[in-house]
């Protein structure tokens, strides 16, 4: 089941998505005395995280944070580093978390990093996953055609040209050649294990991907379309991202 909410501005979209996340985290802590969450990065998460860190309703010492994806071979000091992004925009903005499991894409053995993180996350029930949808329809860094079948929680994936062009277009890199060609990504199956999925998608350049996600057949060619089979998915859009949707789709 997917619930689609359209806001007038990216700020309103981010606030609404953050409030839903906060509610689910609070419930998880009330019911189990802890909450495991997955956070994403990129332009789609700016407003979400900005509102999330302001809440006074969450005891962050009971929250374990996992990381959705990271480039292979990129230093944490690089402006495009997702570890750096989450450290600056989330981890350093809240009181100490119970645990933080960031992806280190700058290790010599990426597959060993995947195995290590996979073992850890397999011990947790994820309460909330916050993510976006790529211009090519990717979910995390699972570019089309995405692997819907693997049960491994983390994978080393190849990034397609359109995905890499998006990273360049968002200003994270100066040239396409600078954009890494591989990443460590949470798998589709692991993402779908989250009790609640919250997807935030702003901007006109995401409108085609949003339409494909909601109107096309569920298919690895449209990776984010899989969320339509999730039991509790919330899709937050601004007016621009929803521009190609008709009333029957909404």
Give an overview of the whole structure:
- This protein is an alpha/beta fold and 250 residues long.
- The chain has seven helices and ten strands.
- The strands form two sheets. The chain has a seven-stranded parallel β-sheet, covered by helices on one side. Strands 4-8-7 form a three-stranded antiparallel β-sheet.
- Helix 1 (10-32) crosses helix 2 (46-52).
Low-confidence stretches: none
What is the total domain count?
1
Order of helices and strands: EHEHEEHEHEEHEHEHE
Beta-strand percentage range: 15-25%
Please identify the structural class as seen in this structure: alpha/beta
3D shape: globular
Helical percent range?
Answer: 25-40%
- Strands of the widest sheet, in order across it, are 1-10-9-6-2-3-5
Brief summary:
This protein has helices at about 10-30, 45-50, 80-90, 110-120, 160-170, 190, 205-215, and strands at about 1-5, 35-40, 65, 70, 100, 125-130, 155-160, 180-185, 195-200, 235-240. The chain is of the alpha/beta class and about 250 residues long. The protein has one domain (about 1-240): Rossmann fold (3-Layer(aba) Sandwich), CATH 3.40.50.
How do the helices and strands line up, and which of them pair or pack?
Blueprint: E1 2-7, H1 10-32, E2 35-39, H2 46-52, E3 63-67, E4 69-71, H3 82-89, E5 99-101, H4 110-121, E6 126-131, E7 154-158, H5 161-169, E8 182-186, H6 188-192, E9 196-201, H7 207-215, E10 233-238
Features:
alpha/beta; 7 helices; 250 residues; Rossmann fold; 7-stranded parallel β-sheet; 3-stranded antiparallel β-sheet; single chain; 29% helix
């Amino acid at each position: 089941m997917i619930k689609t909410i359209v806001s007038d501005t990216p700020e309103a979209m981010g606030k609404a998505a953050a409030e839903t996340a906060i509610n689910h985290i609070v419930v998880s802590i009330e019911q189990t005395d802890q909450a495991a969450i997955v956070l994403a990065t990129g332009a789609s998460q700016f407003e979400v995280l900005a509102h999330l860190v302001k809440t006074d309703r969450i005891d962050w010492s009971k929250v374990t944070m996992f990381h959705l994806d990271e480039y292979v071979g990129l230093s944490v000091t690089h402006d495009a580093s997702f570890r750096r992004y989450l450290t600056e925009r989330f981890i350093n903005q809240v009181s100490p978390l119970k645990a933080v499991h960031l992806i280190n894409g700058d290790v010599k053995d990426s597959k060993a990093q995947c195995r290590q993180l996979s073992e850890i996350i397999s011990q947790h029930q994820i309460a909330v996953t916050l993510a976006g949808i790529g211009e090519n329809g990717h979910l995390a860094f699972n570019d089309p055609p995405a692997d819907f079948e693997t049960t491994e929680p983390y994978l080393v994936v190849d990034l397609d040209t359109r995905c890499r062009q998006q990273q360049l277009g968002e200003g994270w890199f100066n040239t396409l050649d600078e954009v890494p060609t591989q990443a460590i990504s949470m798998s589709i199956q692991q993402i779908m294990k989250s009790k609640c999925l919250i997807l935030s998608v702003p901007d006109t350049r995401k409108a085609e991907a949003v339409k494909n996600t909601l109107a096309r057949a569920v298919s690895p060619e449209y990776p984010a379309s899989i969320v339509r089979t999730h039991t509790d998915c919330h899709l937050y859009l601004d007016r621009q991202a929803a521009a190609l949707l008709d009333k029957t789709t909404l």
